[in-house]
Design a protein that fits this description.
The chain is built from two helices and 48 strands. Strands 2, 4, 5, 7, 8 and 15 form a six-stranded mixed β-sheet that branches. 3% of the residues lie in helices and 50% in strands. β17 and β18 form a beta hairpin. The chain has 632 residues and is mainly beta.
């Protein structure tokens, strides 16, 4: 009986695992004794392990990864009871069976060696599934025994995602702070490209000790959201790229390149190329050098391209240096008699234009041309090379107001022992402008009352009148608004009586003249120098002091628009302190404050500010003239 019971228990246990520990099944000594004593009857029900039906079961040994890249397959390893119908299926988030895995399958009738189960690998054909969350479910004979959630995500790694066409980590310019590289990851599907978004599609961390100093930095980038996978790269912290500030032909076979100095650079590399050739190094320069004149092998008529690279010691690689970013195209210089560089063409009056250009080394003078409508050139001026300075100019007069003119300049030198001119090229586009009234110069803008601001400007020659413009200074979105048209050219002031108290305004003026019945306007000076800023405030009060016994009356003449006054006092050579705030007395020509906190034989000084209360703040006037009184 004992042997039959033990066999039955072992057989039942095998339905739920391959092995059974010694402690898993026990037979009590009392049971044995009872059997021996005849307590357990031979007629009792006995368990026949070979005949008892085993409960079907399925066990998952190896699960798919929690995240699987799009386009990748997987598998699941299971153990199933012998000769048992089982299923392993994949469902989407909506519970739809994706037709992946194994369904209505039956295990072998022969268990895997060393086991009471059949061990099976079920392939999962996931390569066509889109990004999303999926559930793996398994069971036997239509009875679910378990489930497991996993995600299909796009991989950042091009090895696992053929649609990743670009993964760049930019170098970072040194600023003494932890580097924040610009990471560009582009995924292309069909005709559409998508640039992955930081903190939405990916995140990163710097993986090396050096994260601030010039040298090499390691970075690890991992997918988030719809993306998975990890990629590692490196980038450099580099010096600032020098900006070329000048690239000019200095003769028939020379060119001069100048650039801005770069902080922390220990030198520069100058590179040059011709046409479609490759850049090659032509000079290595010390850190203090910011210009170089190239006289090596230049050919007249040829165009050369230059770029400058800063270098600095690497903090991560001994005896090596890092280089700044390179300009892909460089700056072009054509080796000819140098063409003047045009600076500006500006109207200086209703019938005058002034053309300004940079001088050319070695030039004898300059020829100024008007570019006509058909593209031909008409010489209108000859200008000698200035004795000093780096700019030259010419003023064209007797022009028609409102008409557009276009000009350019050529430099020339004289051939040896000859008066023949050797002429440079020119800027063929030239500069265009219209002759128009001079831009009015605003001379003053002053608050003259709580709601009035007076604007004054200089008279403009031949002006028919002026437009006054205003905008709110503290509003970035505020636009210029025309507030007045002044119809006389001799008028040079205007009072804005619709200003809001305390609001800060900017004012400027535009002049106009008339040509064939149409207005021709000047420019409008919007710069800090030409557009004045002011706000309307109450007028400053006028006060009077009178001693009455042990008190001093401070009489304040009425200030239009004021809501009250603030009184300040000092004793002797002390400091002024606010001593009172009083409201305006309605329908009174003045307001009096009685100061009863005085002593005899002392000097007291007072001044007063008027204020107007707005919705946002108290707007103060300028302080009144200070008045002193010595008490009796």
């Amino acid at each position: 009986m004992k042997k039959r019971l033990l066999c039955a228990l072992l057989a039942a246990a095998m339905c739920f695992g391959e092995t059974l520990s010694a402690s898993a099944v026990t037979v009590s000594t009392n049971d044995v004794e009872m059997e021996q004593a005849g307590t357990i009857s031979e007629n009792s029900t006995e368990v026949d392990a070979e005949k008892e039906k085993v409960t079907p079961n399925i066990i998952v040994d190896e699960y798919p990864a929690e995240t699987i890249p799009v386009g990748k397959n997987s598998e699941v390893t299971i153990r199933v009871s012998v000769d048992t119908e089982y299923y392993v299926c994949v469902y989407n988030a909506e519970g739809k069976d994706m037709g992946i895995g194994a369904k209505n399958r039956r295990s072998s009738t022969t268990p895997t060696e060393g086991s009471s189960y059949v061990k099976i690998k079920v392939p999962l054909q996931l390569d066509d599934l889109p990004v999303g969350t999926y559930t793996l479910k398994w069971g036997v004979e239509d009875t679910e025994r378990g489930s497991y959630d996993f995600k299909i995500l796009k991989s950042l790694d091009a090895k696992d995602n053929k649609n990743i066409i670009k993964t760049d980590v930019s170098n970072v310019v040194y600023d003494g702070k932890t580097a924040k590289p610009n990471i560009t990851i582009v995924e292309s599907i069909g005709d559409n490209s998508y640039t992955l978004v930081y903190k939405k599609d990916f995140d990163y961390k710097l993986t090396t000790d050096n994260q601030k100093n010039m040298g090499t930095v390691g970075i690890e980038i991992w997918g988030i959201g719809d993306y998975t996978g990890i990629i590692t790269k490196t980038f450099d912290i580099t010096p600032q790229a020098p900006a070329i500030t000048g690239a000019v032909c200095t003769g028939f076979n020379s060119a001069k390149i100048t650039w801005n100095a770069v902080a922390n650079a220990n030198g520069y590399i100058l590179e040059r190329k011709t046409g479609n050739g490759n850049f090659a190094q032509i000079a290595t320069l010390a850190s203090g050098v910011t210009s170089y004149e190239d006289t090596t092998g230049l050919v007249t008529g040829e165009t050369y391209y230059y770029r400058i690279v800063a270098k600095a010691d690497s903090k991560t690689n001994a005896n090596q240096y890092v280089e700044s970013e390179r300009n892909a195209t460089g700056v072009a210089v054509k080796i000819t008699p140098s063409s003047p560089k045009l600076i500006s063409l500006e109207s200086t009056s209703y019938n005058k234009l002034k053309l300004t250009w940079n001088t050319v080394n070695g030039a004898t003078g300059y020829l100024v041309y008007q570019i006509l409508a058909d593209g031909s050139y008409k010489q209108v001026k000859t200008v000698a090379q200035p004795a000093t300075g780096t700019q030259a100019s010419a003023t064209m007069t007797k022009l028609k107001a409102g008409q557009k003119y276009r000009y350019t300049v050529k430099a020339y030198t004289l051939a040896a022992n000859s008066v023949a001119k050797i002429v440079s090229g020119c800027d063929t586009t030239g500069l265009s402008a219209k002759a128009k009234p001079a831009t009015p110069v605003v001379t003053s803008v002053k608050a003259t009352d709580y709601n009035k601001i007076t604007i004054k400007w200089k008279k403009v020659t031949k002006a028919y009148g002026y437009y006054i413009y205003r905008k709110v200074a503290d509003d970035e979105d505020a636009a210029w608004k025309r507030i007045k048209k002044v119809k006389y050219g001799s008028t040079t002031s205007y009072v804005d009586s619709k200003a809001e108290t305390g609001v800060k305004y900017i004012y400027t003026v535009k002049a106009y003249t008339k040509v064939n019945g149409k207005n021709v306007f000047s420019a409008m000076n919007k710069s800090a120098k030409g557009a004045k800023v002011v706000r309307a405030v109450p007028k400053k009060p006028v006060i009077k002091l009178t001693q009455w016994g042990a008190s001093i009356d401070v009489d304040i003449n009425k200030v239009a628009g004021a809501d009250g006054y603030v009184i300040y006092r000092k004793e002797g050579n002390g400091k002024y302190k606010k001593i009172a705030t009083v409201d305006v007395k309605k329908n009174a020509d003045f307001t009096t404050y009685k100061d009863a906190t005085i002593s005899s034989a002392k000097t007291y000084s007072y001044y007063v500010k008027a204020y107007k209360q707005t919705d946002e703040s108290r707007v103060m006037s300028a302080k009144s003239k200070a008045i002193a009184l010595t008490t009796r």
